[in-house]
Amino acid sequence: MAPNRERTSGTTYQVFLSFRGPDARQGITDVLYYAIIDAGIRVFRDDEEIQKGEDIGEEILRAIEESRIFVPIFSINYASTMENLLGSLPERFP
To answer: TIR domain spans which residues (predicted)?
Structure first.
């Protein structure tokens, strides 16, 4: 399944929602996501679940770079995603 997002060609995302899978995918993440879209704001939310130890894809890293605001949604399992992200950052931002 492709990431669920609103995007106009040639523009950046205004908001990147960062969350960790099943413990945050439903509930507050959905409420926030649809409220942001209803406000007319371009938002990126990845709907593919990234497993612990799996590399974060190029598309997600590019979406982070193209976003003005990064919104972390903290949950019990959020840190496992951040471990993956932080491991990729030195390569992207030397």
So the answer is: 11-94
Query: In 3D, which of 81, 89, 84, 66 has the Cα closest to residue 19?
Result: 81
Model pTM above 0.85: no
How many degrees, rounded to 5, is the angle at CA 51 between CA 12 and CA 89? 50
Alpha-carbon distances, residue 34 vs 12, 17, 80, 89 (angstroms): 18, 11, 25, 29
Mean pLDDT, the chain cut into blocks of 10 residues (94 residues total): 45 85 73 94 78 68 89 75 56 54
Q: What structural domains does the chain harbor? A: 13-92 (3.40.50.10140)
For residues 40 and 1, what is the distance between their CA atoms, to the nearest angstrom? 24
How far CA 65 is from CA of 24, 28, 33, 58, in Å, comes to 23, 24, 19, 11
